[in-house]
Amino acid sequence: MANQSKRKGRKTISQRAFYDEVPLAEEKKEQQLDVLFDTFMKSKELEGLRERTLKDHSTHFRYFVSFLNNAYPSVKLGIDITTEMVRDYIYYMTKEKMLWDDHTSSAYKHIEKKGLSPVTVNVRLRTLKCFFKFLFDENYIRINPTARIKLLKTKEDTIPSFSETQVQDLLKQPDQRSYAGFRDYVLMVTFIDTGIRCKEILGIEKKHFDEIQKTITIPAHLAKNGKERIVPLSQKTAKLIKILINESRAFEDPADNIFLSNFGEKLDASGVRERIKGYGDKSDISDVRVSPHTFRHTFAKFYILNGGDPFTLQRILGHSSMNMVRKYIQMNGEDIKSQHHQYSPIQHLMES
């Protein structure tokens, strides 16, 4: 009764008023898009995002602003961006954008080609969605213009790898009588033995190599996922790396890296890609892209074909999900037939 007397005559509420929007402060309403992006980038730096990821955010934002300057020149403020503008940007990327017009040195080769691939469009969309979600969450804008934007559908990726014969042909190409040739040989052997990324292998130093345990430690700052991992080596690869390190002592003041240029300096990734592509040309390999990353796919495929388990492969490759591992294992018809013949239940039942 006491509780009832306290409530007697008080106003009750049965319906919500739906006060969803938090009013924006005037200074937030007037902030230009580039100023908001600077705020966003500072936040991401504090979160510890890798330099490559931060660079991607900046590059993709620049592409979006370039589109706005042409299609919506009067739009400057963050609150002015609408979902319709984002959809127009997607249409422009998929249907109208000239291929490579952001890279003048290559644009002339693709002067008649228009439209980016769905994969490329999605890469740019993801960073844009991340940016506007931040603005919405931090109450810089009332509505997130990318909230209802979905990524484009993409075809199932099929990334070919080298055959055993192609790997053998590639390894025959470097002239091992020279330092550069021997270094390239060891580099390709390490690629195929570990599936290590190009940036990782060029960044590792002598201290990361354990001759006794036959491992290479990939430090966090080199790993794509920002996590340190240990990559095992075969006895042959470990021996070759040790010989290469000994060879580098001939340099007057070599860098700490394992793989060095003829001047004892850290190798450049673009130069390595060009040299490996050159070995592919000498091997007459035309049906597969000859690159460090193809070695990574080849390692993953043969690791599984030779009986390795996918969970260990995931750890070696440094992937956070099995879905990423699956993308690296692309088997052709002959691979599948060989595996079926080896592991078919009926094959073993009939033999027993």
Automatic annotation (TrEMBL):
Gene Ontology biological-process annotations: DNA integration; DNA recombination
Residues of the Tyr recombinase domain: 157-341
InterPro entries (UniProt xref): CB, DNA_brk_join_enz, Integrase-like_cat_sf, Integrase_catalytic, Integrase_recombinase_N, SAM-like_dom, Tyrosine_recombinase_XerCD
Keyword Protein biosynthesis: no
Domain Core-binding (CB), first and last residues per copy: 31-136
Keyword annotations from UniProtKB, A to Z: DNA recombination, DNA-binding
Record-linked Pfam families: Phage_int_SAM_5, Phage_integrase
GO molecular function, one term: DNA binding
Family to which this protein belongs: Belongs to the 'phage' integrase family.
Protein name (record): Tyrosine-type recombinase/integrase
